[in-house]
Amino acid sequence: MPKAKIVGTGLYVPGKAIDNDELKALAGIEFDSGPIENKIGIKRRHIARLRAMDETTADFADKAARAALANAGVKPEEVGLFIVGTDTPEYISPATSIILQGRLQGDEAESETFDVNATCAGFVTALDSAARIVATDKSLRYALVVGVYDMPSFLRPGDAFGWSIFADGAGAVLLERTGDDDPSGYVEGCFRANGTQWDYIGVYAGGARRPVTREVLDAGTWGLELLQRLPGDRNVKLWPPMVRRVVEKAGWRLEDVGHFIFTQINRSVIEQVMAILGRPMSDSTCVMDRYGYTGSGCIPMALHTALGEGRVKKGDAVVLVASGAGFAVGANLLVL
Predict the structure, then answer these.
(1) What's the rounded Cα separation, in Å, for the pair 336 and 320?
(2) For the segment 166-195, what is each residue's pLDDT rounded down to a tens digit?
(3) What would the pLDDT profile of 100-159 be if each residue is shown by its tens digit?
């Protein structure tokens, strides 16, 4: 049976990196850098807004996508499917993926586009969807999947928590349809959701339930809101079963997997998860130290980094696991 394999990756972050000391000055906030650097693992990040750069979600997605196309040596007009995973879209409507297609292909084309908003699990959800579409549509050769994040555009002044954690960035992968005789390709995915927890953290203004009005602006109830504290051990409990489940669905063993990439929200959590799985940290890649937390962008950004640094190579089996508010969790198993 045909399948989809990754043939190119790309990454983009805007402007010069901002360390924790400079962040305090630029954002006008105060926070304890110790836990942010030593536990969460964030030392630097990139934020277009604080560098006075006129770039937002679509710009990040565009540049990461172009990097992935260049990496694969494929022209934009050869792509037939564009999926963008994000919960910080350029607009509520039209979709960011439509804007991306227009920028890359420059005109009307025989292309399918759609966005996936599974909060920070958007990229792994989009990758699973893209791989299955590519495998079943014989007319489709290439699909472009982008995970992108611009939560700083939704941060309110004085939000020390938000500014210290969230950052801008995008990662992209180009998928190509390939045959069963190719050892590389997408193998399996699995997902979990609990929509009863929608009211923990999110951007609640701007949609149909609560349009942005003068009253909302005056009350300061716009942008990112933390309504309830997230359980600190949620991902420690969620991620190991997700890894084991996606491997089980494929009929594989855990030892068949060479590398694991998780949502880059907290390095100490990743260390705990890797210990539970009985694997060393060298079998995982962390990029929050240089990029901060980039939501749906962090998984493809970490994958691109792992490939670029030689931490993974062609033929390696990799599991990607991502969590998002709401909550949504997803895992992908693929062979590079």
Answers:
(1) 12
(2) 999 999 999 999 998 999 999 999 999 999
(3) 999 999 999 999 999 999 999 999 999 999 999 999 999 999 999 999 999 999 999 999
Topology of domain 185-335 in CATH is Peroxisomal Thiolase; Chain A, domain 1 (3.40.47)
Q: 7, 72 in Cβ contact below 8 A?
A: yes
Measured distance CA(97)–CA(215) in Å, rounded: 32
C-alpha 109/C-alpha 74 separation (Å) is 16
Helical packing angle, 267-277 and 234-249, nearest 10°: 50
**Alpha helix ranges (H) inside the chain:** 20-27, 33-35, 57-72, 96-105, 122-136, 160-165, 214-219, 234-249, 267-277, 288-291, 298-308
Query: Residues spanned by CATH 3.40.47.10 within the chain?
Result: 3-178, 185-335
Q: Residue 277's pLDDT is what? A: 98
d(CA 49, CA 89): 16
Look at the domain 3-178 and name its fold.
Peroxisomal Thiolase; Chain A, domain 1 (3.40.47)
Taking every pair of Cα atoms in the chain, the longest distance, rounded to a whole number of angstroms, is 61
Pair of tokens at residue 35: 């836990």
Contact predicate 57/150, CB 8 Å = yes
What is the rounded distance in angstroms from the CA atom of residue 129 to the CA atom of residue 37? 35
Mean pLDDT of 191-201: 96
Residues 271 and 279: their CA atoms lie apart, in Å, by: 9
In three-state secondary structure terms, 90 is coil
- CA-based nearest residue to 81, from 46, 30, 132: 132
Q: How confident is the model at residue 1 (pLDDT cuts 50, 70, 90)?
A: confident
Closest C-alpha to 9, from 301, 295, 258, 284: 301
What tens digit of pLDDT does each residue of 38-68 get?
Answer: 999 999 999 999 999 999 999 999 999 999 9
